[in-house]
Amino acid sequence: MVYSETDPGYWTFQFSALEGKKSVVELYTNATVDEDGGIHVKDASTSKTMSMVLAGLDQKERPVIVYAEKVKVSDRDDISLKSTDLLQFNMTLKAFKGSDGYQWNAWGMVVESTAGTAAQADVEQASIQQATA
Questions:
Q1: Pairwise CA distance, residues 108 & 85, whole Å
Q2: How far apart are alpha carbons 48 and 28 in whole angstroms?
Q3: CB 10, CB 103: distance < 8 Å
Q4: Closest Cα to residue 29, out of 54, 53, 2, 47?
Q5: What's the per-residue H, E or C state across 9-40?
Q6: Mind listing the pLDDT tens digit for each residue in 30-71?
Q7: Beta bridge partners of 55
Q8: C-alpha distance from residue 55 to each of 26, 88, 109 (Å)
Q9: I need a surface site. Which of 16, 35, 65, 108 has the fewest CB within 10 A?
Q10: Within 13 Å, how many C-alpha atoms sit on residue 7's CB side?
Q11: Residue 32 · residue 18 · CB < 8 Å
Q12: How far apart are CA 32 and CA 34, in angstroms?
């Protein structure tokens, strides 16, 4: 996942969706998937908006979660239909302000301890030492 900030003040998220899930395909194609899995694309517009939840692991296998209430495709790559390639939907999503006033929220992107977390760890360590004394 790559994210960047662009004028006039919106954020974009770039990633490859490796599953042909209904929500991914509908957002990518701006079409509705039929009950039988059919897709009927009329044009190349990108008017659909959806909520986004990205979940992954960092290099040390710690969870990273990104949530945006309202996103829309701003750019997408071609679909490669080769038997030797995974079917992937490479796209860039633009985030818009949600009902909470935030464009996006994330958990797990900051890996070093914050003062509150360090203080809590000190209290827990002192409790363990006191219990074993």
A1: 31
A2: 9
A3: yes
A4: 47
A5: CEEEEEEEECCCCHHHHHHHHCCCECCCCCEC
A6: 999 999 999 999 999 999 999 999 999 988 899 999 999 999
A7: 65
A8: 19, 17, 11
A9: 35
A10: 0
A11: no
A12: 6
How many C-beta atoms lie closer than 10 Å to residue 16's C-beta? 11
Per the CB < 8 A criterion, the answer to whether 29 and 39 are in contact is: yes
Q: Give one word for 22, left, alpha or beta, with left for phi > 0 and alpha for psi -120 to 50.
A: alpha
Q: What is the DSSP string of 117-129?
A: HHHHHHHHHHHHH
Indicate if the alpha-carbon torsion angle 45, 51, 3, 32 is positive or negative: negative
Q: How many CB atoms lie within 10 A of CB 73?
A: 20
CB atoms within 10 A of CB 37: 9
Give pLDDT tens digits for 97-129. Answer: 999 989 999 999 988 766 555 666 666 566 566
Contact 67, 108 (CB under 8 A): no
Given a contact cutoff of 8 angstroms between Cβ atoms, the answer to whether 95 and 16 are in contact is no
